[in-house]
Records
---
Amino acid sequence: MFQTKLIVTGDDFGYCPRRNQGIVECFLAGAVSNVSLLVNGSAAADAAKLARRYNIPIGLHANVSEGSPVCEVLKTNSSLLNEAGFFHGKMGFRAALSKGLLNMSEVKQELKAQVDLFHELTGHLPPHMDGHQHIHVLPEVRHVFAEVLEEYGIEYTRVPIEPGLHNCDWIEPSLMDFYVGVEEDSLNTVDVFTKHGIRWPDIYIGLSTMGKNMSVSAIRNAIDTAIVEFTSKGPAQPEPQHRTVTIELMVHPGYPSVPPIGGCGEGPDDFSQSWERLHELQTLIKPELQSYYKTRNIQLCSFKDL
């Protein structure tokens, strides 16, 4: 008999006031149960206040790929910055890393500065910490990321390996290539995180249900597929009769950013300005989704409840 605990994490909290508003609405509607804060986001301080006001469980969305660093020393003359003085971007970071151009001690320095700023903004350390644009599972980065989590005693992270991803034929090829790369990096990260005593939910979902691809049926199918795959593997050793399966569903709800407001130092990106954010918000609060959770005895919770 399996009980299911589902963490629905609203990513990019702090990106802009309209993102914050959408995520808070989702939380109050019972559609999001956890949030991930971008401390270099233009509305990060406001997001931290909202989390306090509404008692929203909050973790850190570590960001070394978009916008500006929070570490003063790294704001000039750092390997993490491009010629314009901003982080290299989602693909630019990966390209610079593959060419050996990034200094890992600077990555570690920035990650620690972000944990410290999170603590300053919220009054506590993050119970969980993951990477914006999945940078935390990249080669080399995964090691310093794990060291930072262990140093601060941050127990939980995200490992984006999504069951059934390869069967999602609605995902456009260029995006699927990126997702497959993320999956490969994640598989190579498992041993590193395990060695450092870091934990993560049994199941991750969120690549196949992102933006325009999100629907009630897509979320339902992703959860059902993942649970079947997970439970069919069978436990490695005899377990108690009642076993809890933990799932994290990564989501990006919000109202579209309106430039120049938003972003992490260089204005909001295209995805943030698109209708897809609002589409996620509207899908997540649909009563059919809530009733599906009830029917399947799926309990929404946060990392603190694991």
Note: The first strand starts at residue 2 and ends at 13.
---
Amino acid sequence: MEPPQETQTPPPSTVCTKCGGPTCLPTPPPPSSTPSYIPIRFPAVNLPTPPTNIKETIMRTPVPQSQKVEPITPPHTFTTPSKRIHSENDVARFNSLPSFHNFLGFVVSLSESIRSRKLSDPCHVSPAVETLSSILRSLADYVDEIPPAPQSARYGNISYRAWHERMSSEAESFMLKLLPPYFRDASVELVPYFTDSFGNSSRIDYGTGHETNFAAWLYCLARLGIVREEDYPALVSRVFVKYLDLMRKLQLTYSLEPAGSHGVWGLDDYHFLPFIFGSSQLIDHKYMKPKSIHNEDILENFSKEYLYLSCIIFVKKVKKGLFAEHSPMLDDISGVPSWNKVNSGLLKMYKVEVLGKVPIMQHFLFGSIIKWDGTEGSEVVSCTSLQHCHQ
């Protein structure tokens, strides 16, 4: 008796018996070796949704509130700042410290200072703000004097290291332009925050951790009384705008790699704070809503006045393809009904996704200005005595 013969299933028909149309899609082409937009760390199409627990954590996080900066009074002993965060437990401890809440409260205060204001609106510009602007202009000039080296690599032009070395060599002299005689020793603490604000020269990269260092540097200047609350609008509209322009120039000139990108579920490959400040600018705007970012005429006509719109234009400049595919988070935010909700949501997201992440905060520095041991209260003085010290 012969063994039963195996029956083979006929291949599925590729033509419908009813309408004669094709029933199978053609084999997709192999993935392109050249991505359709730059910069990119992960493909932006057909991604799973972001982790639910992160979304829930952000939703349940209280909206950060503004705080007055706690001033330092001379005499004061400054120390070289060092890294203290190495684990989740360290991040949790930092999040419980007065220094954390005061720093985050400073960022919120900067955001509130620019609320419903255009970048060109008049504001108080102190000598300190003028000096800060001058420092950033000098750094931008260095880029023009140090052209990118000819190389085929897509990321990481080695000439950036020459720019970074020059910036670092001038850092102390920049600090001394800002510091009064009784705080000159503070340069040992300010220089590391300053030099870490512009990216990493070894990896030739830049990200939200470096941007946070720039905010920390401004916070240290506020604690030293060099910039005051009346300077906050100018710190955003004059100083931070120049910093953002400089970083975009560095990114495009030297092809900086995004540092620890969140992939497409981050706001941007490099920045976070301009979205916070920019959304605050647009609160209660009569005509522009979050969905207005999809209107090309609005972007073109108002991007020079509103940081959020300038960020959208820059993202569209460096990334090609459908906006919803390469920037799904920004696309989702455009569906939020009001800028006030966008701003509060971004502040919560900054606290959780930037200040609450070990890969970012492991590089953050702690010294005598931003303390690790949580004893800031002993250094609080009244405005009257601080003003007396400055006279």
Note: The chain has one domain: 80-390.
---
Amino acid sequence: MLKTPIKSTINITSSTIVIATFSVLTGCQTLSNIPTANTVNTAISNPLTAQMSVPDRQGHIAYVEEQGVGTAKISTLYSIRPDGSVRQLIDQLNGYIYAPAWSADGQMLAYSKQAPREHPKIYIYDRKSNARHLIVNAEGSNLSASFSPDGQKLLYSSTVGGNADIYEMHLSNGSTKQLTTLPSTEVQPSYAADGKSFVYTSDKVRAGRPSIYRYYFGTGNAVPISTGSYAASPQLSLDGQRMAYLNGRKAAVMTLDTGQITNLAETGLDEPARLSPSGQYAVYPTRTSRVSGQSGGSLVIHSLSGNTSYAISSQAGGVVRSPVWGR
């Protein structure tokens, strides 16, 4: 079981970070394992699943499905295989669940959840013990967690004095270090696979106009990644050659050494793409189902080499958000 860090002593305000504005549990509890019926037999209906590498094919895609609006909002966190099988309910609440992120070994899933009249808190779900642990409960908005490659640390964004900055926490004891101190908004950190840097979103050049930067731990310096437009929510591939992100309003993937951008789709949700463990596939959500006979949103899995895709429908006809593909 993970050690649950003591409550942070950082003085944090209660404002909420949502990238679009640039534009209850404590301790440890065991969850019931609730598999649900498959929505679509994608292993039969498309050839992509069979062609995937083992880490991709046997991996898990975590995503959020939302039902209702306002105070009636119900958010459910699921994991599912890329072939549409073994859909499992991980967490559910009256409120919001944000930005799930897998550890490198696929055994832990970090995410934020916000119950009504409460601030977003960061939890970690442990697949092995089937338990979840409250990790960050500082006053304010605690969002966009990212595991270090060794699983020992966690990056996340949080508000201090009404401002959003990036922090790094040691999971063994809860000690936390603030990494960014600018008066602008710094959010959505994501570790590189070698652990020497991370990418994140900032509007430090122009308020309300986010760009992507890369922070190097060795120097403490951050350099911009040229995308040419509004860009947010970056994620690097494990080999460091590609970056998935939100390009304007489109889910996109960039090849970093050439700067070539592949726009996958305008999702209608301002949601980014996320890469598979091999970096050869991307997953993103759409507002309307692309599965015949199904209602609600979909997960779309796209081959970056073959320019083909298939969809997995939502479980209960809700809005699909924030898919992320882990081992």
Note: Residues 19-232 form a domain with the Neuraminidase fold (CATH 2.120.10.30).
